[in-house]
Amino acid sequence: MHTVEPDVVTDVLIVGSGPAGASAALALSTYGVPNIVVTRYARLADTPRAHITNQRTMEVLRDLGVEDEVIARATPQRLMGDTTFCTSLAGEELGRVRSWGNDPLVQAAHELASPTRMCDMPQHLMEPVLMDAAVARGTNLRFSTVYKSFVQDDFGVTVTVEDLLRGDEYTIRAKYLIGADGGRSQVAEDAGLPMGGQMGVAGSINIVFDADLTKYTAHRPSTLYWVLAPGATVGGIGAGLVRCVRPWNEWLIVWGYDVTAGAPDLTTEYAESIVRQLVGDDDIPVTIKSSSAWTVNEMYAETYSDGRVFCAGDATHRHPPSNGLGSNTSIQDSYNLAWKLKLVLDGTAAPSLLDTYTAERAPIGRQIVTRANKSIGETAPIFEALDGLSPQTPDQLWANIAARKDDSEAAQKQRARLREAIAFKVYEFNAHGVDLNQRYTSAAIVPDGTPDPGFDRDPELHHRPSSRPGAKLPHAWITSGTRTLSTLDTVGQGRFTLLTGIGGADWIRAAGNQDLDIATVVIGPGQEYEDPYGDWARLSEVVDGGALLVRPDGYVAFRCPTAAADAERLLTEAVRRILGRA
Question: Is the per-residue pLDDT at 388 higher than 70?
Fold first, then answer.
């Protein structure tokens, strides 16, 4: 039992102000849960870092009320999508992939799947949007404050932190602790979270610079330009990545190094030499803003919590930036956890509800770590098509690249191999299913007895909407008076929602009799919400008198596809089970 009086008391203490920590704070403050964020840094992110923001994350930000701010600051989807492979930006182009939903067929799938659009929102722009909104809604933010240790008991967690400005330590007493302190998480280590995989698989360098590259990029707008770059090592062959931060003047280069030999000396001269090599035009003025080394990791937590201590974001899944999954998964971790903490803290749900956080999010973390690392390996065939993996001089590589233009059978085969290799990168740049097909299985999901239909197409590439418990509520455009809105706009806002149709009066009454705040939505002719396109009737997978109970995070928790004479009993049992009261 805690006896020493703490210096500060709160409901939830969050360590880290990155995407996971900031979004946890935003969600908790939106739900009225007192929380404090501490970060060892004196400011929010000052480099671009994570940037791809997918549709599911935009749905989360839409529910949390910051979607419009993100859209206003982000690079729009239409400027993200011609991933280019070349010998330098000024040099020869090898091919392109229509990416991030900009392929016409994929774009149609994006429009059918969600009311939101993915965008490119660099982390140094995203963090202020999330944290400013969190603070405005009640979060207390403390910069220059280092997490030191925690001690937990049956009633809470006592955390010792150090104030770097004052040079002293003090304690914060919280009912729950969230470790969102990144890929070298001290909280995760102190909590003893078991990890799978390995750290330090490869080495990379980020170089942030300003340069007007409009003449090489505006005609083929993209987030990523992949450069086959001879001379990564003496006599060797390497690949560099030129990433657009802000069109078309701010950039970030990712360049590899031998992790066994250690990072090179990151001087301004060294950084500029890499920039010059990948841009391929020495006359363009370049301003180096920063350089930093990091390692490619392939690690995931098997358990996301220990007692009253929870971890989220890179603390639990560490992987390369391939597929742009990092900050998306981090924000979605926190969104999953926040509503559960709220209901446990206010006594609505049993503490066992919090066990579903690991059950639901750990499989997703493992999946995205595997997918991101697999995408790295899927780049190799591009080099193989040019015989670029075998030891050779740069001159030999240039000859191989030039040979693809010959009028010969060998060159024809090489061109075909190169086209196929570049097209296969669709698994990195258009993995719509990875973004949206997340399914949960946990005690907070009530199975309806239907068999899992699986996926009729590749589940990494193609989204399949479903109202089956454990799936995200399908998006359909509906109307209310003169307003057109998504079915996703009728749920969320920190509460459960019951959706039904004409003939669902018993479900509505049952929802009103629960010891839980359940919003009710009736969709049908002459109702508050109508389905003029018939899309909801097609996607809902329930008849008019059936019902869906949707959690605050937009996931279907319970489904009854038909009207039920015992609606009250069915819904009451489902709610008790979800809340851990059964």
Answer: no
